[in-house]
Amino acid sequence: MPQKPNHYENWTKGKRFIKGDAFFWVFKEGQHFVVEVPSKEAWDACNTTASTRVDETGQLIEYLVDVKTHYYVCKFHCSKGMKVIIDIKAS
Known about the structure:
Layout: H1 7-12, E1 17-18, E2 22-26, E3 34-37, H2 40-45, E4 52-55, E5 59-63, E6 69-74, E7 83-89
Parallel strand pairs: 1-7
Antiparallel strand pairs: 2-5, 3-4, 3-6, 6-7
């Protein structure tokens, strides 16, 4: 669990993510369920109703190939700050 609610937001500041980058998820299996939600509004509200399943096994490499903003949350702990926005640029 992040020590501060904006931990992952602070982590992304100053970083540039480009098409083809890999994003590594590492967490304890069964304790988290990472999903991608469709919008900033869903991310803000921790609304996972229209989410896309990403992973719950504990280790995942996701290759970011879509040039867009991705909104990820932990289905179990989003309200405690386990969420991140990854904005992918073409280059």
